[in-house]
């Protein structure tokens, strides 16, 4: 790896249900809940530069990276928080703002890349604390960074990167579709939505992936977050006995098991995923572009 650049990868996260815990101090804010740390995520290359900059790329269906933005307020703020300057390039395949935790993955991968680039010497938990703080301040999420520290199917029993987090694995495939992106902050900044979410939060902890899917669906139903489009897809899954729920917070559906592929294919592009075995990592000798 070139000493003047560093590349890191962080997996994404599909949240099935969550309960916000918002405090004036970002370090004490976060959420509890359950989700899936997924194989797809964000690659970040950070290169030393006198001026901070960010470019966002997304790959098309055949893997060609296309620039979708010349900046990112969140990643620019991250550099200010870390008192560093770098030219950052991020690349992902999954759509941004659609419930796949791409914002959190970009943040956490960026912190790890900058940590490696400038030889700061932070451990994984310290990197997560910085990314979590910025995520909470921008309301781009409340628990994705905490989940993405490691892999598997995750139950966050207490909020924040230092919280009590349980992780389990399952080899079954996960399939997901996105209908339309929604603005996460529009939900997290709404007292009315927070009240609904709080009332819908499950009072039990899942002990298997099936349990998690059932609790996620119940949460989606009771919170009132399900859109008409999502309802149509979920109804099709129900007809065929497929466990499915809504991506939180995104206007999409995720389902488990190989039979889900055929059903979801009738509603749009299907993303084929698995549970990630681990969290963020430095990619030696690789660059995005």
Fold and architecture overview:
The protein is α+β, with helices and mostly antiparallel strands. The protein has a single domain (1-289), classed as Ribosomal Protein S5, domain 2, CATH 3.30.230.120. Helix content is 32%, strand content 29%. The protein has helices at 73-82, 102-117, 124-137, 144-148, 184-188, 191-200, 209-223, 228-239, 260-265, and strands spanning 5-21, 30-48, 53-59, 65-69, 86-92, 153-156, 165-168, 174-180, 244-246, 251-256, 271-273, 281-282. Strands 1, 2, 3, 4, 5, 6, 7 and 12 form an eight-stranded mixed beta sheet that branches. A hairpin with an 8-residue loop joins strand 6 (153-156) and strand 7.
SSE layout and pairing:
Layout (H helix, E strand, L loop, with lengths): L4 E17 L8 E19 L4 E7 L5 E5 L3 H10 L3 E7 L9 H16 L6 H14 L6 H5 L4 E4 L8 E4 L5 E7 L3 H5 L2 H10 L8 H15 L4 H12 L4 E3 L4 E6 L3 H6 L5 E3 L7 E2 L7
Parallel strand pairs: 3-5
Antiparallel strand pairs: 1-2, 1-12, 2-5, 2-6, 3-4, 6-7, 8-10, 8-11, 9-10
Helix pairs in contact: 1-3, 2-3, 6-7
In short:
The protein is globular. It is α+β, with helices and mostly antiparallel strands and 289 residues long.
């Amino acid at each position: 790896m070139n000493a003047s650049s560093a590349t890191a990868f962080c997996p994404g996260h599909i949240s099935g249900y969550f309960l916000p815990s918002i405090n004036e101090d970002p370090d004490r804010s976060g959420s509890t809940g359950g989700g899936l740390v997924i194989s797809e995520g964000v690659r970040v290359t950070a290169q030393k530069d006198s001026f901070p900059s960010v470019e966002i790329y997304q790959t098309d269906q055949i893997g060609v990276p296309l620039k979708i933005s010349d900046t990112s307020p969140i990643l620019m703020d991250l550099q200010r928080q870390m008192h560093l300057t770098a030219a950052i390039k991020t690349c992902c395949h999954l759509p941004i703002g659609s419930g796949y935790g791409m914002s959190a993955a970009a943040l956490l991968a960026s912190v790890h890349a900058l940590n490696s680039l400038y030889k700061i010497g932070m451990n994984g938990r310290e990197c997560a604390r910085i990314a979590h703080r910025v995520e909470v301040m921008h309301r781009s999420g409340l628990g994705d960074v905490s989940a993405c520290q490691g892999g598997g199917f995750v139950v966050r029993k207490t909020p924040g990167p230092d919280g009590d987090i349980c992780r389990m694995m399952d080899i079954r495939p996960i399939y997901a579709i996105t209908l339309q992106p929604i603005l996460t902050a529009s939900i997290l900044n709404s007292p009315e939505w927070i009240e609904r979410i709080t009332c819908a939060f499950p009072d039990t902890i899942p002990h298997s992936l099936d349990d998690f899917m059932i609790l996620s669906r119940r949460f989606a139903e009771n919170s009132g977050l399900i859109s008409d489009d999502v309802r149509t897809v979920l109804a099709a899954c129900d007809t065929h006995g497929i466990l499915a729920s809504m991506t939180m917070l995104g206007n999409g559906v995720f389902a488990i098991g190989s039979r889900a592929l055929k059903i979801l294919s009738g509603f749009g592009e299907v993303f084929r995923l698995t549970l990630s075995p681990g969290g963020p990592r430095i990619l030696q000798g690789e660059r995005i572009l």
